């Protein structure tokens, strides 16, 4: 399992959390997705044989939440 962390532009509403967590959580290979509203950070654990960090980043961006930076470990 890999962990990807993304720093987003500031989130404006708590419903953003459900939208991002829900979309990432339904992606094949993602075992956990967590959004921290006040710091606008996303942390996702995923199986890199099924999905790539770039796919996660693109999904977040396509939802309308631009990613400012990312880190994979």
TrEMBL record:
CDD domains assigned: HMA
Keywords noted in UniProt: Metal-binding
Coiled coil (UniProt feature): none
Domain HMA, first and last residues per copy: 2-68
Protein name in the entry: Heavy-metal-associated domain-containing protein
